[in-house]
Amino acid sequence: MNYFNCNGKILTEGALIIGADNRGLRYGDGIFETIKVKNGQVILADEHFSRLWKGMNVLQFEIPKHFTPDKLHEEISVLTKKNGHENAARIRVTIYRGYGGLYDLSNHAPNYIIQSWAIAESNGELNSNGLVAGIYMDAKKSCDILSNLKHNNFLPYVLAALKAKKEKWNDAIILNTYGRICETTIANIFVIKDDVICTPSLKEGCIAGIMRKKVIQQINNLNLDLVEREITVDNLLLANEVFFTNSMYNIKWVKRIESKEYVNTITQKINSSILPTIC
């Protein structure tokens, strides 16, 4: 039996918690955070909660004084123990507004759901077999005040993931509305060409990834050349190395995109240096 937390109450998996007038269901009115727990510790907790609170402010939630990062931190710990997931787990914290239409909502306080799933304890090690990815062309991601947030309107990612499954890719790369590289369905992207490491700037519409930020910091510590800039599809296909980052698997190197094959020489060096800083 697996359990989840809804507004501070522990419920059994499958329990019904929202009605037809819920704004999260109607409009995707909310935000979420995906966090790793390892050996009972919430990894990079401060960074995750800072991003979550920033997102709630952008979405104009009215946050009560009692609703704090410490409160969520404690409830995550209680849930992982209840589910037996202390060794290694993926946590999803979903924040959503309550009930009403677009103009008749009186309460802007956050409602929340916390879920946990067990993951392999080896999760976070560099993959031995490179990923195979493709480029999804049919829906683009906009560049606006919502772009850097993990909000609950994720249809381009949903459609790209369906495409990846159909094509037997491990992941799909999302383009922004300018036709440039943005990110993947679940990760930020880094491209290496002639020893220069590039990643799309936040202005290009990508999620402000926690692991993206940590990797950038570590690359700078290693005195490697890093540029945050626009990346075209041609830049991607002419690169020597490509790797993806997120808070669950840290870094994964990419073996192939379309017919282009990549290596992972510099990626291994970056991965070796990042692991001690996050565990």
Compact summary:
This protein has 279 residues and is α+β, with helices and mostly antiparallel strands.
Characterization of the model:
Helices cover 27% and strands 32% of the residues. With 279 residues, it is of the alpha+beta class. Strand 10 and strand 11 form a beta hairpin. The protein is globular.
Summarize the helices and strands and which ones pair or pack.
Layout: E1 3-6, E2 9-12, H1 23-27, E3 30-38, E4 41-42, H2 45-58, H3 69-83, E5 88-96, E6 111-118, E7 131-141, H4 155-167, E8 171-176, E9 181-184, E10 188-193, E11 196-200, H5 210-221, E12 225-229, H6 233-237, E13 241-246, E14 250-257, E15 260-261, H7 265-274
Which key features would you list for this structure?
single chain; 32% strand; alpha+beta; 279 residues; globular; six-stranded antiparallel β-sheet; nine-stranded mixed β-sheet
